[in-house]
Amino acid sequence: MDKEPYHIWISEIMLQQTQVETVIPYYERFLSALPTVAALANADEAVLLKLWSGLGYYSRVRNMQKAAIQIMTEHGGVFPSTAKDLQTLSGIGPYTAAAIASISFGEVVPALDGNMFRVFARLLKIDADIAQPSSRKLFYTRILPIVDPVRPGDFNQAIMDLGTSLMRAKAETKSESPFARFNLSFQDGTELTYPIKSKKVKQIPKFYAAIISETSGALAYEQRPKTGLLANFWTFPLLEFDSWDAIYDGVSAQYPDAKQLTISPVTHLFTHQKWQVMLVQVDKIEEKWTYLTDEAYDVLPQTTLQLKLQAALKEMQ
DNA sequence: CACACGTGGGC
DNA sequence: TGCCCAAGTGT
pLDDT tens, A58-76? Predict the structure, then answer.
């Protein structure tokens, strides 16, 4: 099995909040383009974002490059080998540090991710709210003595496998399961109430006009701010309004010739926002917009939102 | 501590 | 549709 820390690191970061099936092609492509820590440290941001386009949580790849630079400059190009040292790197928190330390270097630490929280909350009936950061210490203390001292990496991966197979969030243990006799919550019928998790984020509705402005075969784009949501990505110019109904009149006030291109909104969900976007064509050419041909645009990193807007525009034509 | 930060899939 | 889930970290 591949235990190369650079490889484990990339896969663990990609797998944060992301399904295995989604990650595989990204992983192969990333490793081919940037095979070493040094290559990652020296890569252009546009190359990084292009390799990550569509994966989401784009700060992950920016932090990976920061960490690669840290490894080259502060660690002489040698990958840190303990969970404690790994956690000093950008984008590496307690979970990823433990995963790399146990898998690549054999350190005996539990890699506490969503799966491990769920598996042990059920097996041991741990009532702590996993949405509370303070609960991590309690789980860590309970699980540490259980980690296989000889094969900690295999232990961590096995627990995660258990969490994605027999002990998925909505899967109940069957009485013939070999795990039934270890599973306290199964024995008293409370399994699906674990893990205890309080947090619920609501998605705030947002309304935008996406401006379609064309001149000599090129369309208008804007680069998003360098911090915040979809930082530095290129999208059609976006104007925000308070409601869906306010969009068309609002755009018309600035651009009297505005033409509404979409009847129903292009919708896009983020973790905490729900966007509804109307495509609006205008004749005016604004200096603040950057006009790019399709060829020039295609080499830039694109978000899934922008791909949806492009697809909707193409359907109009 | 609470919240920002993407995307895709299941029901 | 709306809500939950999926290999978290930074601020």
Answer: 999 999 999 999 999 999 9
Tell me whether residue A286 is one of the annotated catalytic residues. Answer: no
| CB burial string A283-306: b at 16+ within 10 A, e below | eeeeeebbbbeeeebeebbbbebb
Contact at 8 Å (CB) between A167 and A174? Answer: no
Which pTM value belongs to this model? 0.92
pLDDT tens column, A178-203:
889 999 999 999 999 999 998 777 88
Does the C-beta of A137 come within 7 A of strand B?
no
The residue that minimises its CA distance to C1' of B10 is A170
Range of the domain at A248: 204-315
Q: Is the CB of A140 under 7 A from strand C?
A: no
- A164 and A99: one domain? no
Domain boundary among A169, A193, A217: A193
Counted domains in chain A: 3
Q: Tell me, what CATH number does A305's domain have?
A: 3.90.79.10
Q: Is the CB of A198 under 7 A from strand B?
A: no
Residues A184 and A208 in one domain: no
Q: Choose one of A56, A73, A105: the last residue of a domain.
A: A105
In chain A, positions 211-270 with C-beta closer than 7 Å to nucleic chain C are none
